[in-house]
Specification:
- The structure holds 2 protein chains of 2 kinds.
- Chain A is mainly alpha-helical.
- Chain A has 9 helices and no strands.
- In chain A, helix 1 packs parallel to helix 8.
- In chain B, 51% of the residues lie in helices and 18% in strands.
- The chains are: A mainly alpha, B alpha+beta.
- Chains A and B meet through helix 1 and helix 6 of A and helix 1 and helix 2 of B.
Chain lengths: 259, 442
């Protein structure tokens, strides 16, 4: 039970911790205030609680596929925020673009916490009233959260202590991979809800790196690693990364031409 | 990096957490495997015990005194066709296969781990089984008890790291505090309770720099003071010779008038430089006393009244007797410079008002005139050394060197006072208000 709790909580915490740490580091490298983090954390945890409490009703919507649809929407929203973030970064000298940039960061962090936080609340809530299982689940949760947050701290200090330009580029790279992962997960939810038909996985790498291993979890949070991805997931992953790169390049090009 | 303390706390805590928790998971898996093998040994021993304790070969009814619903046993004949006896909760059929060793089987909606033992003496099979989930829970309970302190130790480690890093960074914090709270004129060396090796070079070099800076300031002050002092005598001699020359050539000579203006300007400049030196903090701070600003203004106006009268300027003093803690000589110089500026730039027949009053817990000294005033954009710059409005081409044509308001600012800073410039309430002109921290009201 402890191992299951570790894996489930680690998966959720690691993903949110990576998004938060990369945005925190980029905000610092781009000389932004960090007050937004407090706002985003409060709103995120509040939203996670509200979503978790109402998840029963959400699940009943759309013929029992409400939860999958909402989760797919949350992942797509994070991707949209990352896309707007990439577009707005080169135009920081304009107040309106700076504002848009800040809003995208806050919204991405809130959405990530709502999505991952609600899963954690639901999971732990399921064991309340079962004392024999609650204690290993809580300990597993503490261990998973501890590992996830520690990795987030390391990523943050890695980015802010690198040479500024290297830190910014590595931060962008991680955001690209997270963006791809978000879209791939959204597609996975749509497959689960039968809105996209399931097909045979295009590869099976579970023998090399199991999704349940620590490395598998880290790769999942970092690059959206799936041992047995559907072709649609793989296509969505690479196309979304391509879209993010194209958006960033076009935005930088436009700024370069603007006198 | 926002804070070294926070960085050290978070990075150390993250390292300890990561290493400890990964080790914990590894320990958990090893302990669980060890516990499972202990349970297996117990199962094997139980099977042998049952075999030795039960030698009946005939078929019997099931044993009703079942101690626990989490385990069962069966005894089968050599062919596995006839169940000789069993515990009450045991299945009546063979679950899995009758091959010696450990197996996992399903029974009564649970997964069971059984051990099949071949009793060679009585030629029969003994099957002993335990519920896997119960075995797992028991093992986990024992293992978790040993792992709990590791998880609970993390907040304790955070507290200890926070305190230890705080103690370690204390010299750095002391250094930063001393630098932050140093007055602009305080160039004394920085002294720490103990200087760690990492800060030795920083403290040493900073103190050496402060020492050199202090020496340079003193040298500059001494030079200015000595030069001004030494120049007084030749200027006095020049004035005597000029007086003699005027007696001989007459007052109307234009060159003589220019020469006189030049000498007076030089004399004024030297007097101001001397005043600047005398009001420097290291000269004035030691002689603070209670000074009644209204009385001080009265005596100063009385001594300089003649020059205001010569320009037919109307000078008015109003206010309360308010005392401040200050240096009398410096405050005299401040008031003298403000009155002198008002006198110089107020046209003949103009008005000058001086007010001393308590204001919002402070003492306000205000000098207003009806002169041309100063454009608001120039308010900051007039306090710079040797800065004169419109340079040397000032419309008033008055004698000045651009040090008057610098000295006023210098003295105000010395008394922790603030200066506010603004338009005069007389329609035109300048209003200068100096806000001093209040002493005692008499």
């Amino acid at each position: 039970m402890l191992l299951n709790a570790v894996i489930i909580i680690l998966r959720e915490v690691l993903e949110a911790a990576l998004i938060i740490s990369v945005f925190l580091a980029l905000s610092q490298l781009l000389n932004r205030n960090l007050w937004w983090m407090l706002v985003a954390l409060v709103l995120g945890f509040g939203g996670a609680y509200v979503y978790a409490v109402n998840l029963g009703q959400v699940s009943m919507m759309a013929g029992g596929t409400g939860q999958e649809i909402v989760n797919a929407c949350l992942h797509s929203l994070i991707f949209l925020c990352l896309l707007l973030f990439m577009i707005s970064v080169p135009h920081q000298q304009h107040v309106s673009w700076r504002l848009l940039n800040l809003v995208t960061i806050i919204l991405a962090v809130i959405t990530a916490i709502v999505r991952e936080g609600s899963e954690i609340i639901l999971y732990i809530n399921g064991f309340i009233g079962i004392p024999d299982l609650l204690s290993p689940v809580l300990m597993g949760g503490a261990v998973g959260a501890g590992i996830g947050l520690s990795v987030g701290v390391f990523f943050y200090y890695l980015l802010v202590n690198m040479r500024r330009s290297h830190g910014i580029w590595l931060g962008y790279l991680i955001l690209l991979l997270i963006g791809g992962s978000m879209v791939a997960q959204a597609v996975e939810f749509m497959i689960q809800a039968d809105y996209i038909s399931a097909t045979t996985p295009i590869w099976d790498s579970s023998h090399w790196i199991s999704e349940r291993s620590a490395v598998g979890q880290l790769l999942y949070a970092l690059v959206g690693y799936e041992a047995t991805p559907a072709p649609q997931q793989a296509a969505a992953y690479f196309i979304s990364i391509g879209v993010l790169i194209a958006a960033a390049v076009i935005s930088y090009t436009i700024r370069g031409r603007t006198p | 990096m926002k804070s070294i303390r926070l960085f050290l706390l978070l990075s150390l805590l993250a390292t300890i957490t990561l290493v400890n928790f990964v080790a914990l998971l590894h320990g958990y898996q090893s302990s669980m495997q060890k516990a499972q093998s202990l349970f297996d040994s117990r199962l094997e021993s139980t099977a042998r015990l049952i075999a030795s304790a039960n030698s009946e070969q005939a078929e019997r009814q099931s044993i009703a005194q079942q101690q626990t619903p989490y385990s069962y046993f069966q005894i089968w004949d050599s062919g596995g066709k006839q169940l000789l006896t069993r515990s009450q909760n045991a299945p009546e059929a063979v679950t899995g296969e009758l091959a010696e060793g450990f197996h996992e089987v399903n029974h009564a909606s649970y997964r069971w781990r059984n051990y099949v033992y071949r009793d060679q003496h009585l030629n029969r099979w003994i099957v002993v089984a335990e519920r896997i989930d119960i075995r797992y829970s028991l093992a986990e309970e024992v293992v978790l008890e040993s792992l709990l302190p590791i998880v609970l130790a993390i907040p304790m480690a955070a507290l200890i790291i926070w305190l230890a890093v705080g103690v370690g960074l204390k010299p750095l914090r002391q250094f930063a505090d001393q630098v932050r709270h140093k007055r602009a004129d305080d160039l004394s060396p920085i002294e720490l309770d103990r200087v760690p090796a990492e800060l030795t070079a920083v403290v040493g070099n900073t103190n050496a720099l402060l020492g050199r800076l202090d020496e340079a300031f003193h040298r500059e002050q001494r030079f200015a003071s000595d030069a001004a002092h030494e120049l007084r005598t030749p200027i006095s001699v020049l004035k005597v010779h000029l007086h003699n020359l005027r007696q001989r050539l007459g007052n109307e000579d234009e060159d003589i008038a220019l020469l006189r203006a030049g000498i007076e300007r030089m004399g004024h400049l030297i007097e101001q430089i001397l005043a600047l030196y005398r009001t420097s903090p290291d000269q004035a701070a030691v002689k603070f006393e209670k000074v009644d600003m209204l009385k001080l203004a009265q005596s100063l106006i009385a001594s300089e009244f003649v020059q205001f009268e010569q320009k037919q300027q109307q000078i008015e003093l109003s206010g309360d007797n308010v005392e401040i803690e200050g240096n009398r000589f410096a405050l005299e110089t401040l008031l003298h410079n403000l009155l002198s500026n008002a006198h110089k730039y107020t046209p003949a027949g103009g008005q000058i008002h001086i007010r001393v009053r308590p204001l919002s817990g402070k003492v306000a000294l205000t000098v207003e005139d009806s002169g041309p005033g100063i454009p608001e954009a120039q308010y900051e710059r007039v306090f710079e050394r040797f800065y004169r409005l419109q340079g040397d081409q000032h419309a008033s044509g008055e004698l000045g060197c651009g040090l008057g308001l610098t000295i006023v600012k210098h003295i105000a800073d010395l008394h922790h006072a603030t200066i506010k410039l603004g338009p005069s309430s007389m329609g035109q002109g300048l209003s200068v208000t100096v806000l001093f921290p209040q002493g005692e009201q008499s």
